[in-house]
């Protein structure tokens, strides 16, 4: 018997009535700005001291700069890159082609019973060239800016947690003498290696602090993670701390 083909009709799937949500660029920018404002507004209060060691108010520290969790691997990387960049990479030795001297064959090829040699500048002779010696090279390394800032935030946050960071104001009242500033550091109870950070308004303290033993003085925009990690205490002048926070929030 002949077979009859059945006609198959394709069934179209039903479309779901979904409303298309359009997000404008303005709303995204607004959300990002609000998130950024929320992060910046998270601050912690930190006491400010006078040169006599008394409390003179407080200052707000942003948590993203002074309350970050400590990342040991990132801090170690920042310190290692800083130390590498302090090297000049200028170590150099002379090969046998760079040494001045005679090119005469030192003795005849055969008949002496010794090994054959062509010149006195060979590396096996005293005063000869150096084989595979160091040559001048560029060993400078770079670190991304965000990683560098994060490492500095980790180091400063650790200093705040360990109570080894101090903020001082009213230094204009002290005479610009080494003796007066040394007494001030004793009153603040800083008896170990100290990093003293000053600002534009307190640049006069360099003359008085630079001769104190175990004290390193640097401007607020020039200290690094290495400086923070190699000192037991950190002293910020109030104007230096304000300028450092303003610089960090802009970046």
Structural overview:
By secondary structure, the chain is an alpha/beta fold. It has two domains: 163 residues, Ribosomal protein L4/L1 (Ribosomal Protein L4, Chain: A); 41 residues, no CATH class. It is 34% helix and 14% strand. It has eight helices and six strands, in the order H-E-E-H-H-H-E-H-E-H-E-H-E-H. A hairpin with a 5-residue loop joins strand 1 and strand 2. It is elongated and about 95 Å long.
Secondary structure blueprint with pairings:
Layout: H1 25-41, E1 43-49, E2 55-62, H2 63-66, H3 72-85, H4 145-161, E3 165-168, H5 178-187, E4 194-198, H6 205-209, E5 215-219, H7 225-229, E6 233-237, H8 238-250
Helix pairs in contact: 3-4
